[in-house]
Structures are given as C-alpha cells and as structure tokens.
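Why does residue order matter? Because the sequence determines the fold. Keep that principle in mind as you read this record.
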Amino acid sequence: MFNNKNKSKEAGAVKKLYHCLDISQTSNELNVDTDTGLSTSEAEHRLTIYGPNQMRGGGRPSVLKILFRQVANLMTVILLAAVIVAFVTKDWIEAGVVIGVILLNSTIGFLQEFKAEKTMDALRKMSSPTSRVLRNGHQIVVPTIDLVPGDILYLESGDVVGADCRLFDIFNYEADEALLTGETLPVVKESDVLNDPEIPLGDRINLSFASTTVTKGRSKAIVYATGMSTEVGKIAKKLLENDKPKKTPLQKSMDRMAWILLGIAIVCVLIVFGANKFNIKTEVLLYAIGLAIATIPEGLVAVVTLTMSLGVRSLAKKRALVRRLVALESLGSITNICSDKTGTLTQSKMVLVRAWLPIEGFFRVSGLGFEPVGEVTKKRKVEINNSTGEPRVNFAESDKAEDNIRSYNNDVERRSLPSSGSSYAEETVTVHKDNISASFQKLVEAAALCNMSEVKKDERTSEWFGIGDPTEVALQVFASKLSMGKPVLITSKRASEGVSSGQWQLVCEYPFDSGIKRMSVVVANKTTGEKLVFLKGATERVVPCCSKRQDGQEVLTIDSDSLQSYLDPRIEEMGRDGLRVLSIAYRHLTPEEEDADMNKADREHVETNMTFLGLVGIYDPPRPESLPSVMECYRAGIQVTMLTGDHPETAAAIAKQVGILQDQDDLNHGNDGPSDHAVSIGPLVMTAREFDRMTDEEIDALPELPHVIARCSPETKVKMIQALHRRDGIVAMTGDGVNDSPSLKFADVGIAMGQSGSDVAKQASEIILTDDNFATIVRAIREGRRVFSNIQRFCSLLIAGNVGELVCLVLGLAFRDTLGETVFPLSPVAILVNNLLTGTPPAMALGAEKAWPTIMDEPPRSPTSGLFSWEVLSDITFYGFSIGLLSIADFWVVINGFGDGNMAQHCNKDYVEECDLVFRARGAVFATLTLGILLHAYNSRRIRGPMWNIRMLKRVHENKVLFFGFLSGTVLCLLCMYVPGLNTKVLKMKGVGWEWGVVLVTLLIFLILSELYKFGKRKILKPLSIATEEQERLQRIWTETTTLGSINDSNTAVKK
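Structure:
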C-alpha cells in the first residue's frame, strides 16, 4: 500500500493534461532530461512510488478465496452437517466417507479454477513484454512492467506501446488505436501542442496510449501514466468495480434442488423417528442419518464440476479458453452470435486477388497467405471459324467499344457478338515470363519496387511471414508469384535466371503519407540506364497525378476527369466484391531529372505527368472454415450477425462469401451483370450511423434486424445486443479492443480474441479464443450443448436413484419383527455403499458422454427452462418410483413370497441364524437397487430414444467409461454381498442364491417399463425443442445450402 504522500504524487502525475503541454513543460513536470533519461536509481525509486506497470485488481484471486468458493455452497453445508451428526453418534465409517466426498468436490473445483486463473496470468504476460527506454544516457531494454512516469520511450513500427506517453521527435509515426478508441484506421501523430483540454481521446494526436500498436514510423515519448492510471487501466478499473457475479440458471436450479432435498431429508428423518414412536435408539438414529444422506446426491457438485472441467479441457484443445465454468451453461442457449469480421471470419492476411489493365482486362491471382505460390490467369477468347473449324486467338481488342464492355465472372471482358460464320470459345491462360505483356510486367515491377515490405520464410518452421504494411506485403507476395519480387529485381541473380528485364536499383523513396495517400520511388535500370518513377496509392490521389493511360503497347493522352470516369465502373465492381482498390502509375524521368539529385527534388513535381498502368484489388480472404461454421449455426437455429469497422461494400461482400447474407436477401446486384459476390447495400446491411439514428421503437418494428452493420462503434454493438435481448435473444459477442469491453460485459457470453485481444477485453470476457477463429465459437457452442445435456442426464440419474432409495427405505419401515420394531431393508452402511456405487461413477461416465450427431439439429435451449424441466421431473419420478417399488417388492417376495415371513428379533444389530432370511432379503434389495440404477445409467443416455433394442445393444460399449463403470459396479456389488465378514458384520446382509431369479426378473420388468415409458413419451409429448419461426428459417437455409452443395458435388463427380 502507498502512503498518502505517494498517492497524491501519483495522482498529480496523471491528472495533468499532457496534450496541452509542450515537450519542455512535460519534461519539467515529470522532472526528466530528454537527452539522458532517468537514472537507474531514480527509476527504481519511482517504481516504489507508482508501483508496477500492470493491471491490478483483476489478477488471480488468493488461494484461500478460491478454496472458500468451493465449500461455500448449500450442498457442501448439508454434507458437513451430516459429518457432525456422524461424529456425534461415533459412526466413524460414514463420517470418513462423507468427508472424503467433500474433499473430492472441493479439490476438483479448486484445481480447475486455479489452473484457469494461472492460464489467464500467462495471457496477461503476453502483451508488450519489453520496452526500449533511455536511462543514464543509454538506450536499454527493460520489462514493460518496470516502466515509470518520466521514462523516455523509443517507439517504432511494430512496437506495442507500454504506457501512456507524450510524443516528440516524430517521424512519419502512425498508431493503431482500435483497441482503445475503435478507430479502424491508424492515427497519424504530431507533436504540436493541442490547446483544447476537453478534446476527445481519439483526437489527442500528440499522445500515444498503452496497449496500442505502432504501425508506421518512429518516435520518442515521455511516459506520464502507468498501470491502472493509463486510459486502458481506467476502463479496467470501471469494469472491475461493476463486476458483480450473478448466479446462472444452473446454479439457481441446483440451489433450489438443495433446499428441496434438505426439506425432504428432514421429513424422512422425522418419518423414521415417527415409525419407531420416537424411541430413538442408536441403530434408529444411524438409519435416519443414512436415509438423510441417501436423500442428498453428495456426488452431484463434484460431477457437475468435473463434467464442466472436462468440457473446459476439451475446448482448450479446440483453442477456446473458458475463464468461467458457468459460461458452458450459457453456450447451449445462444440464439445470436455477433462477430467481428477481421481475423475472426477472415484470415487477417491481405491478399492481392485481382488486377485490371486497360485493353487487357481482368487478371485473377490464386493462392492465399504469405507463401509466394499461386498463378496469375486470364480468360481469353478464341474465335472459331465455323467453316474451317480453325481457332483464331483474340488476346485484346480495341477500346473503341467501351460501352459494350461487361465483366464476366469478375475475370474477363466480353465484347460485341462475333461476326457471322464465327463463334467464340473461352479458355484460361496462365501468365508467365514467356507470354507476359510489357504493360503487365511493368505493373508487377511497380508493385514490387514501390514497396517497403519484405516476405521471408522462417527457417525453423518453414512458414512464410510478412514484414511491413499488410497492403504492401500483399503486393510483394503478388510480384513474387511471378518471380519478380523485390529481392529478385534488385540483385544480380536476376540476369542469370533468364528474366527479360534488367536489374533495378532504388534511387530514392517518397514514403507513404496518409495526408496524400500515395507513395512513390525512383528506380534505375542498370542494364538500359533509364530511370523511372513508380507510383501507387488510392485511386482518387493517383489519378490527378496522371496525364496519360497505358493502352497495351500504346500510351494515350487523357485528362484526369476522363480517366476517373473511365475507371469508376471497374473500381465500383471491385469494391462490390469486397476488394480494396489501389492504382499504379509510372513515368520516365526527363534527361534533366536523370542528372539531378532526386533526393532533393520536389515531391509534387516528381509525382506529375504520370502514365496510368492499372488497378489491383486486395482483400482479407475469409477463413475456409467460416462458411461451413456459419451454416452449422443456421442448422442449430443460431443467427450470425457481422459487426465490423469496415466499409459497407466490403462487409457485405465478405458476409455473402461466408453465408451470413443469402442470395434471396434484399441485396441487389450491380447493373454491370452478376459477379461472384457482388452485392449492394440493402435493409439487411446498415452502417452504424443509420442504425444508431433509429429509436428502439423503430428497431423493434423492423421485420428482421440487420445481418451486417458496417463502420461499427462500441455503442452500436451495445445497442444491437439490447435489440436482440428485447427479442428474447441470448447473445454471444466477440471483441478484441478495450472499447469492446462494455459489449462483452453486456452480452450473455463475451468472447475475446486471444491473439489480437487486449488484456481488458480478455478480463471482461467469459471465453477467450486462442486462434481468433469463428469456427472455434461454433465448436464451443456444440461443446456447451453437450455439457448441459450431459449434466441434465446425470442429474436425472442421480436424483432418480435417490428417489428409488427413499421409496424403498421409507416403505421398508412398514416391516416389523416379532417385537414390533422396524426391520430395515438396508443397513445404514449399506445405504452409503449403494450411494457410492450407483452415484458418482455412472454420473461421471454420463458426464463424459460424447455429443449425439443430432445435437446441432435442435434449436437453442430456452434459458428459462432451467435444469429440471417438466420432462426431467417426470423422468425422475417414474424411474425413481419404479426402482424403489421393485426393490421393496423383492424384499417382500423373498421374506413373504418364498420365505416363511419370520423376521426374528434385533436383525438390525447383528447376524444370527434366525435373521438369515432377513439378511438374504437385504442382499436381494441391495442387488436390485445397485444393478437397477446402473442399468438406468444406460437409460439416461437417451431421453426418449429406445436403448434396449438390437441396434443400441451393439453400441453398449460406445461410452467406455460407462461400460467399464457398469462392470466394475457389478463386481463391487458382488464383493459386498459375498465377502465373509464384510457382508454380515459391516453391511448387515448376506449373499443370495435362488433369489437371483427374483432379482433378474425384477430388472427385466424395469427395462420393459422403461421402454414403454419412452414409447409413450415419443407418441404423446411434443418434440424436445420447438423452433421459432426465425430458427426454422435459419434451418431451412442450412438445408437448402447443404442440398445445393450435394447436388453440385454430384454434378462435379459426374463430369469427372
């Protein structure tokens, strides 16, 4: 803890509005020399004052707190009460067994939560581990956690900013602040003083904030806030203050069940005392305790925790880290997934997929990712003379009939119809060094040379990676696919490889400037001596620099307005396909410029009188698994909504490719004819501005909420969640930025990105995706459904078994010996042993049950249904009473049906010859109860489906844990019955002989009753889940898409 003096000093350092101070004032305020930085001793002193530069309050809780949470539940309290009673009556065996159960429950829960929190600690340490600072006049690297106010930071492209800081000595510095402000584009920084003290955070361009990323340039900075005093820390502090955990429906159901069972246990104890006329002897008290313990499924908490832990472990292997076990419960109820686009539905790897040149038309580029492997292809028309049958190739045509140009399948330009006597056929041509045109080669060279990025191969992993701006990396990969990457063009190896052009040398560079949105380089050809300027950038900034257009072998003079009008249809078409369009141009230097020093030339003059070369289209391709995953959501009745910061056209195009938008949706194709993914804005695609302007009443009046919201802000995400909640939706929301934290908290299930997500977003979430992949969300939902259905199964099994025991033991109080004292159908220890054999082991086996193939065919489970639906309660009652009545019937049949009805005296205490019949009857009851409940574990695998037919009997070993659990339970049952001393002295029963016939007939009757009961449910009850109209619509989309895919696959197979 800090003393008050230190606290006030810390507050003072942070409350200053440093964007309103110049560098001199800032350095004076923080008492640091910008030329030498802090001394080591001063940095250590300040570290003791301000504390470590980390998020506090949201870390791992203490070990004692985690342990306390494991025992602070009603079920454990009841078990502790049973332990106290057992100790008072000196029943050491029962006390020891119950204590063992409590320890098992607590240990499993403690280890799981402790492990999850340790994993979160590891995730927190992944962000910005080191920083470069100036101390004692030397630049050194220190752990980011050791940064203090006054440190001089060195920042450059690729760095994660370790603390809030005031920038100076800026050179072309840009930062990605999307995690904090939601701004999708990098922010250009300046060091000038800002005079407005209330200027918004995103406009404080002379500051850089913790957890943001430097995307370009370099700068120095003075740290003024660390840890919880940073802007990120302030948001984290608010989230921690409002982070009040609420009980989930599962927890509420288990609490209600615990109270009900507590009441039943008390009533049962009173019944036992009443049946013995409140003559409470030691054996009567022990029987009452045994009956009370039989009422409580003591293994339930452990099995629920273990089942969820297994689900967490399974999801961890599938790259989803569950921070809170209860999130698994909510996953099965999800009706809507609101997902980001970049990196979640897409690969977060910019790829150049298309190029366009005047006359030559569109080129398609294959291959995804950073590996320079792929082909550049173009469709060409071959004119067939119908009279001779000989082909005539038509590579390019005159541009005079531009009005007749149409894009066909986004690749090829279609011209006017062929002349009489001829027909056209299309074929795909692969571009390579032998057939590449001069203009296309120049475009490729410009893409490689007007480029500061690098593409390299990791020698250890053999994976390719890019260094630099993602757009430039995409251009470099494209050039490398044609063996014209920058390393090839500027090295002497080029001539030996037989490439037609000569070697190139970089003369000077005019870097990309976000103000003018273009970049240019001057290069020299060592072979010919000519010097050229290559220019690339946004079309609206490149076109004004051009006065000519490259048309095949010709260069045509054209004014900028005409060029822009000429390019607009192609740009719009590529934009509708979700592509980011760049323009490329070039020009030869004049003789005067070739002799001049171009590094001193005026940039505006250099970038004039350019010749337009062509367009390239770049986009972030969808992950291959995104479309099948979205279709899987539709199959499960889950609507997917894309909330992205991208432009509407890009968002709509990607949404259509991944299946979020369908062909029948109100999205109209462009006027230039159909393309693969061309869509325009419709009612299902909105911008955040349009959606935010609508009132809640207007949103609720919409027949369908938009499936895509572009240019999305954090407030828009929260508004969408609220709209979905008003429609009774259960929402999963993805997010990665600090600004996403409110929506992650507001959603029913917050899902943070593990790779690109901020620490605050991770702490606000319930689940973290370690691969940032949408398909992982779908796998998590499937696992959540499996876990909840398994919990429902084994809860039904455990409580039905308890009901069976209660029915048997309470009705057994009616049996009396010759002294009029009750004869117990089972001894107290036998009751506990039966609990151990039939409780936790088969329940754990059901918890490990694999998901049935139809689990994603059902619509989401209603969150209000809870754990104990009417059908589950009906199952518990029917199976419990069936097992209990059949068991006590066996007791009567053995004693009165086949025996002489003599129950002797004091058979509850010790074995004597006169009690042989009673002890054998107890053996029959023990076998019937134990084996009946173990068989019912198989019943519980299917709620309504038949389990005891030939087809399912062949699958009896499918759940190996259950199969071996049944076998081991049977063996232990036999050991309890036949081991001398254990049976008669401890368990007060005896092994049976001919009574096995009674037991087996009883079990057969139980299986027949079970199948008849399930048959009646299938005929009378409604389907397990009733889909809403919206869910039925989504399932129809999945069916139609799957059917269409099957037809296409069949047609392809037939063609092959």
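The chain has 37 helices and 31 strands.
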